[in-house]
Write a structure and sequence with these properties.
This protein is an alpha/beta fold. It has a single domain, classed as Rossmann fold. Helices cover 21% and strands 27% of the residues. The protein has a 7-stranded mixed beta sheet, covered by helices on one side. Helix 1 crosses helix 2. It is globular. The two termini are 18 Å apart.
Length: 152
């Protein structure tokens, strides 16, 4: 079961910070936050805002080339895997990376989720599609059933 999508207007890139804070405040192990949208839509900016809100103080590199970056306490409030699947040619490659092992007890923050086969069928998935809207962005948020009562 999925809940109705919400639309969050983000008037500028600075609005990603508070939006990321609201998401981070509600995360728990096992959740998946998918970030989709075109190049330059703000996926990595939002991922960085979520990580900062979880307590990460250092630079957050885009995992475009490494594909997977992991973050563990005490640097963050809870374990998190930041994945960027842009370079995958086929969803089976996500399995070859050992993604399930990385996800054990952690939050998965996934950019370009469709390249890994998608995660929207998981109850703990918060699917966020970012679109350009003037000088800002629009986030279309589709929560899985586990997000009932804790939407950002």
């Amino acid at each position: 079961m999925t809940l109705s999508p919400l639309v969050v207007e983000l008037p500028d890139l600075a609005a990603m910070g508070p939006f990321g804070e609201r998401i981070a405040a509600r995360l728990r192990p096992g959740d998946v936050v998918t970030l989709s949208g075109g190049l330059g839509a703000g996926k990595t900016t939002l991922a960085r805002a979520i990580l900062a809100a979880l307590g990460h103080e250092d630079e957050v590199p885009s995992p475009t080339f490494t594909i997977i970056e992991t973050y563990d306490p005490p640097a963050v409030r809870l374990p998190l895997v930041h994945a960027d699947f842009y370079r995958l040619e086929h969803p089976a490659e996500a399995e070859e990376l050992g993604l399930d092992d990385y996800r054990e007890g952690a939050v998965l923050l996934a950019e370009w989720p469709e390249k890994a086969g998608g995660f929207s069928s998981e109850p703990g998935c918060l699917a966020i599609k970012l679109e350009t809207a003037g000088s800002g962005r629009r986030a279309i948020v589709e929560p899985g059933s586990d997000w009932l009562g804790r939407l950002p």
